[in-house]
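testing teh design pipeline on a random one, pls ignore if ur not involved
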């Protein structure tokens, strides 16, 4: 409590004495925190030196832009860094990394700012903000795409679709491409083309030592392996390069909606039906609330092929029970990619628990429907996110992402718009997860919960964990990049 009181009063004092406009010189020393809550003081002259060395901004509490920069997608977190380094390019990233390391600061790295666990922003430390780095370049002749770490998936999709190209890029368009890729990267066309990290073939990285390295199959190939699913443990990626695929611009997809009272029988049918689905068929299955406040079973469908082939693939499901809503149609791929945005808006509070399943078993359906029936907050959702297909045909040790055998990722999400709904939504998610966890194995690291124990991270990487530790020892022995699904160095 003493440390919290010190930080709150000290940061408030800084906010009161700092000139509230961009580019202002630091007028006072700044209290800050290192790992473990160690109290630090940053000299005004040192902050000014960092500011002078960067093309981008260095923001302190009270300055214009500070509050906007520190906000992240998950409204459950309201943290105040001691300073924010808004990087304009790789050279700025090097300066910020060197500053954070030399000052002994707690360091958070923000790309698109979509981290569920809130770890892209820290309390009292240095936030390295990559949001200004938004360059996207698509080469339609080479069928490749290059982007910087501040790019959002919708921005990437729009640029690629101008050339009739796409690569696996999530299911919510305001997700950051960087964090998605580093954690693995599921998406609506992942069953056809693999994870986002499978399509990433090169990157440029600033390590904890402030070194700029090129990463591909020939240069620093060990690091490329770790970036494909190992998260932000090994450095800050300043550019990603992807293989692109001819795709779109029109795609067959949309929602199939069934009443909640039919959910058990339809889900049990779906569990068998989906085991023989072609790679082109992607379908999440979720219990959600509609605009009328009524819960329903919704399938989010995307078919990477013609409408005729899609209708043939989905015919058994449609015939088993006629849906209340059949919204399948040919539509722009960029439109279906943002179709879920309104369900997960920026600034809402989120708490998630998730785990992989090989098959949707009857016991899981029963437990899930029972939990949904007890939910007091009707905004809470539970869904099975589709995997398998091309994802499953990559060997588990070929990348840091291990769980290739999974067919779905089960996600339990507590949501709230009002502070008074926070605890009840979080407790519902925890209680539901307690019933569901025994039916899962491992989890998607991009869905790390803030209270997940360290042992869960270790177990999640399984046989790949020791190799990740070796990489951590090589590229970040001091664990500068710890605000993530952290792989700790052994030394």
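output:
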């Amino acid at each position: 409590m003493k440390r919290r009181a010190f930080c709150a009063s000290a940061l408030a004092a800084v906010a009161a004495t700092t000139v509230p406009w961009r580019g202002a010189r630091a007028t006072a020393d700044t209290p800050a925190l290192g790992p473990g809550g160690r109290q630090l003081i940053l000299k005004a002259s040192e902050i000014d030196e960092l500011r002078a060395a960067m093309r981008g901004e260095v923001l302190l509490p009270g300055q214009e832009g500070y509050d906007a920069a520190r906000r992240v997608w998950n409204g459950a977190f309201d943290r105040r860094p001691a300073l924010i380094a808004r990087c304009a390019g790789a050279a700025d990233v090097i300066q910020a990394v060197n500053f954070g390391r030399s000052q002994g600061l707690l360091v958070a790295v923000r790309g698109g700012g979509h981290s569920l666990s809130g770890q892209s922003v820290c309390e009292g430390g240095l936030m390295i903000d990559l949001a200004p780095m938004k360059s996207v370049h698509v080469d339609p002749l080479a069928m490749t795409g290059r982007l910087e770490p501040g790019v959002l998936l919708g921005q990437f999709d729009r640029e690629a679709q101008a050339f009739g190209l796409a690569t696996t890029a999530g299911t919510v368009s305001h997700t950051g491409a960087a964090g998605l890729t580093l954690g693995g990267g599921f998406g609506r066309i992942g069953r056809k083309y693999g994870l986002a990290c499978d399509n990433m073939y090169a990157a440029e990285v600033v390590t904890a030592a402030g070194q700029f390295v090129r990463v591909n199959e020939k240069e620093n190939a060990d690091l490329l392996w770790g970036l494909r699913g190992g998260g932000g443990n090994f450095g800050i990626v300043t550019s990603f390069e992807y293989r692109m695929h001819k795709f779109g611009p029109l795609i067959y997809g949309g929602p199939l909606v069934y009443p909640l009272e039919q959910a058990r029988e339809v889900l049990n049918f779906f569990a068998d039906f989906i085991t023989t689905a072609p790679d082109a068929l992607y379908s999440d299955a979720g219990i959600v609330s509609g605009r009328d406040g009524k819960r329903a079973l919704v399938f989010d469908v995307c078919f990477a092929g013609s409408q005729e082939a899609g209708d043939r693939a989905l015919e058994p499901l449609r015939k088993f029970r006629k849906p209340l809503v059949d919204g399948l149609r040919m539509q722009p791929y960029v439109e279906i990619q943002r179709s879920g945005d309104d369900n997960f808006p920026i600034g809402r509070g989120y708490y998630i628990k998730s785990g992989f399943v090989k098959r949707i078993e009857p016991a899981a359906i029963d437990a899930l429907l029972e939990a949904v029936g007890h939910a007091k907050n009707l905004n809470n959702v539970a869904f099975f996110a589709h995997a398998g297909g091309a994802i499953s045909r990559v060997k588990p040790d070929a990348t840091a992402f291990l769980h290739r055998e999974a067919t779905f990722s089960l996600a339990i999400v507590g949501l709230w718009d009002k502070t008074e709904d926070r605890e009840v939504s979080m407790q519902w998610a925890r209680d539901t997860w307690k019933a569901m966890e025994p039916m899962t194995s491992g989890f998607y690291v991009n869905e790390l919960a803030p209270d997940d124990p360290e042992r869960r991270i270790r177990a999640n990487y399984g046989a790949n964990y020791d190799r990740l530790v070796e990489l951590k020892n090589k590229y970040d022995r001091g664990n500068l990049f710890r605000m993530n699904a952290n792989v700790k160095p052994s030394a």
